[in-house]
Write a structure and sequence with these properties.
It comes from Aquamicrobium soli. The chain crosses the membrane at residues 26-46, 58-79, 91-113. Keywords: Membrane, Transmembrane, Transmembrane helix. This is DUF805 domain-containing protein. The longest helix has 31 residues, at 54-84. This protein is 60% helix and 0% strand. Helix 2 runs antiparallel to helix 3. The chain has one domain (19-110). It has 128 residues and is an all-alpha fold. The chain is built from 4 helices and no strands. The protein is globular, with a radius of gyration of 17 Å.
Amino acid sequence: MDRIVVPATPQLIWLFFKTSGRVSRLVYFLAGLLVAIVQAFPLYRFTLVEEGTPESQVWSVLFLIAFLASLWSNIALAVKRLHDFDKAGWAAGMLFVPIISFVALFVLCLFPGTPGPNRYGKQTNAPQ
């Protein structure tokens, strides 16, 4: 049976917070799913507590922190995914346009990137 290997911390920092290199569609989808879960958890906990209590304030601050971190993580992931298509990362800004974002998510998750090396890296899923 194959063992699952958890990436080292520098690789996780590269994956979620840096914009260099390339990622595959599977890594993009799974990392994006993890970011969404991290963002949703404080919001879920906030809905369970009574409004105006110190606990609700803590959860709202945690949600704000998670939202800002996940916003940057989504941009960094999209930039690396666009790099896999040999496209410039600035196009990730299109993810903030509502109709285009749905189409872009579809394209980034389902279509394979360019095979082999390109100007953004020798291989996918490797820090540059």
